[in-house]
């Protein structure tokens, strides 16, 4: 990564020198460089423009407008235009990044500003901060007082943290929903002297951008969650695994880390506890698959980011074979809130029988796409209202409640709460809480095809069924859309989906065809429209 940063690319000569210097076989370095999307093999042009090609972004401009834009800017001197996977900025769709700076809300229609690309202010560096209910602190000097007060009271910190998390019912917000207290407890029980805490900040699934906002606005809650986790499980090292496109957020995290050190919350003697714990940021070399926890570990170990076979799970055999606690950004932030306020407060935040708060990313056909913090129990219809209602006054046709890997649900389910079990009971999932909204005139067959294409593009290729099955599915779907093939050809899709589900070693392959199958089941008219 250092070479890539310093030179802007990794040439053959530098790679050979690195191989000799580090005594690493050249084929291994070649294997790494060819795997990760952020490496270049040739000098970069003066201006690189990356345009997102995924679902929330393509909804904001027609294919004609898009082709026109790409053609126009591609003609500039020393300009390279690339279509890329979700940039984590689906709220400012269509998302565009110029020389690593997010330039939204610059839109595809502003192509005439090409000369001034580099001067365009990044989209969210100076955003006004929100008032977040989950933040217990009124100002910077109060940060980290949750960990401080537990240490000062000389309570059994690990016991208090684990018990509160278990009683709160908090579940992982990275998609799988594993109970957080149970995970902390499992890793705490491991007897190894070396353990690690990893914050998974690699969010890359189309429609998902809540972690970006949390990292930007509430980095202290995430860092404090890591400290509490470190002291609970007995780790001295924490790593924030951050997607490389989150440059502005990284700067905010670094400021928050410096502040945590100033306040004595990180370092050799955390808040006078006698325990050491520090946190570093690791910049992901790129790719959606790296958010899968074992692929992430492989990347941290300087290998190709291909998921491992499980078990063993990271809690017992994680980074460098040591017990490793991996949690999502939001999970760690909410862990701090729960441990600070205790469980009765957390329960009171929910609506009715539901407990707690939840961040959701909402994009697609709403007036104000963005991140909302909602009481659990809030319905999809209410979340749409919070986002200014349906765009252009149109009516709701369908939505994806949990990002690109969840099943489509029809408007009749808009009154279902955004909650794990509630979403499961109607045949979809909460996943990362990334709600993508589709209005009456959307063709869901085409949009679902775009989603399958995303999974095809991002498959790491380790499992043959995922690699070739996703490719075959995309080919068939494109042929049906172009009229080359009859729709009956798609009868094989459900069998293919079953094969992928049973033979893929990670969640990407297991769910890759779900969105298209659910769109075909609930909206068959869109197939031939
Ligand atoms: C293909 C794929 C991508 C994933 N990407 C992310 C991600 O970007 N961020 C994340 O927190 N979890 C992601 N996950 C889930 C992680 O593997 C893991 O379950 C999660 O980080 C655990 O944290 P949690 O228990 O707090 O949810 C992904 C899973 C898969 C299969
Ligand atoms: S299921 Fe797909 S993405 Fe996951 S490990 Fe296998 S090939 Fe890679
Ligand atoms: S930035 Fe385009 S779908 Fe996320």
List key phrases describing it:
529 residues; Ubiquitin-like (UB roll); 4 domains; binds FE2/S2 (inorganic) cluster; Rossmann fold; Glutaredoxin; binds flavin mononucleotide; five-stranded mixed sheet; binds iron/sulfur cluster; single chain; globular; alpha/beta
Chain-wise SSE layout:
Layout: H1 2-7, H2 12-22, H3 26-35, E1 47-52, H4 55-58, H5 63-74, E2 79-84, E3 96-98, E4 101-102, H6 145-152, H7 157-168, H8 180-188, E5 196-201, H9 210-217, H10 219-233, E6 237-243, H11 247-262, E7 278-284, H12 293-300, E8 324-328, H13 329-341, H14 343-349, E9 357-364, E10 370-375, H15 380-386, E11 396-400, E12 409-410, H16 420-425, E13 434-439, H17 444-458, H18 464-482, H19 493-503, H20 507-511, H21 514-522, H22 525-528
Parallel strand pairs: 1-2, 5-6, 5-8, 6-7, 9-13
Antiparallel strand pairs: 1-3, 3-4, 9-10, 11-12, 11-13
Helix pairs in contact: 7-8, 7-10, 7-14, 9-11, 10-13, 13-14, 17-18, 17-21, 18-19
The protein binds flavin mononucleotide, iron/sulfur cluster and FE2/S2 (inorganic) cluster.
């Amino acid at each position: 990564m250092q070479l890539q940063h310093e030179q802007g690319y990794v040439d053959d000569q530098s790679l050979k020198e690195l191989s000799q210097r580090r005594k690493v076989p050249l084929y291994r370095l070649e294997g790494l460089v060819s795997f990760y999307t952020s490496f270049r093999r040739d000098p970069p042009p003066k201006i690189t423009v990356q345009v997102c090609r995924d679902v929330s972004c393509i909804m904001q401009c027609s294919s004609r407008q898009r082709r026109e834009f790409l053609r126009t800017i591609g003609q500039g001197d020393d300009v390279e235009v690339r279509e890329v996977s979700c940039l984590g900025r689906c709220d400012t769709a269509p998302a565009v990044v110029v020389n690593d700076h997010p330039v939204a809300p610059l839109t595809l229609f502003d192509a005439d500003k090409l000369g001034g690309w580099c001067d365009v202010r990044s989209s969210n560096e100076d955003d006004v901060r929100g008032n977040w209910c989950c933040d217990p602190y009124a100002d910077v000097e109060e940060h980290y007082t949750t960990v401080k007060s537990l240490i000062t009271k000389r309570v059994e910190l690990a016991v208090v943290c684990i018990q509160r998390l278990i009683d709160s019912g908090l579940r992982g917000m990275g998609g799988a929903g594993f109970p957080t207290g149970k995970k902390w407890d499992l890793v705490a029980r491991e007897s190894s002297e070396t353990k690690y805490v990893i914050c998974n900040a690699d969010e890359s699934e189309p429609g998902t951008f809540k972690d970006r906002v949390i990292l930007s606005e509430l980095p202290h809650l995430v860092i404090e969650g890591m400290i509490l986790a470190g002291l609970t499980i007995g780790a001295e090292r924490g790593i924030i695994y951050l997607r490389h496109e989150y440059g502005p957020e990284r700067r905010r995290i670094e400021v928050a880390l410096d502040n945590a050190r100033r306040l004595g919350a990180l370092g050799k003697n955390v808040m006078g506890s006698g325990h050491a714990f520090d946190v570093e940021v690791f910049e992901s070399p790129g790719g959606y698959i790296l958010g899968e926890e074992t692929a992430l570990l492989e990347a941290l170990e300087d290998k190709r980011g291909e998921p491992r076979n499980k078990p063993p799970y990271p809690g017992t055999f994680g980074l460098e074979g040591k017990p490793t606690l991996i949690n999502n950004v939001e999970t760690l932030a909410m862990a701090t809130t729960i441990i600070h306020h205790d469980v009765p407060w957390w329960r009171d935040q929910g609506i009715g029988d539901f407990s707690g708060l939840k961040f959701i990313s909402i994009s697609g056909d709403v007036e104000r796409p963005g991140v909302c913090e909602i009481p659990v129990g809030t319905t999809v219809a209410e979340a749409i209202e919070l986002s200014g209602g349906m765009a252009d006054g149109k009516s709701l046709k369908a939505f994806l409640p949990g990002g690109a890997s969840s099943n489509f649900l029809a408007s009749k389910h808009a009154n279902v709460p955004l909650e794990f079990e509630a979403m499961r009971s109607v045949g979809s999932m909460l996943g990362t809480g990334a709600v993508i909204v589709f209005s009456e005139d959307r063709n869901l067959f085409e949009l679902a095809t775009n989603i399958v294409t995303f999974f095809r593009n991002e498959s790491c290729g380790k499992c043959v069924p995922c690699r070739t099955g996703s490719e075959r599915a995309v080919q068939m779907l494109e042929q049906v859309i172009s009229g080359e093939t009859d729709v009956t050809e798609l009868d094989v899709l459900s069998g293919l989906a079953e094969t992928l589900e049973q033979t893929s070693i990670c969640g990407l392959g297991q769910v890759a065809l779900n969105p298209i199958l659910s769109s075909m089941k609930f909206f068959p008219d869109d197939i031939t429209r």
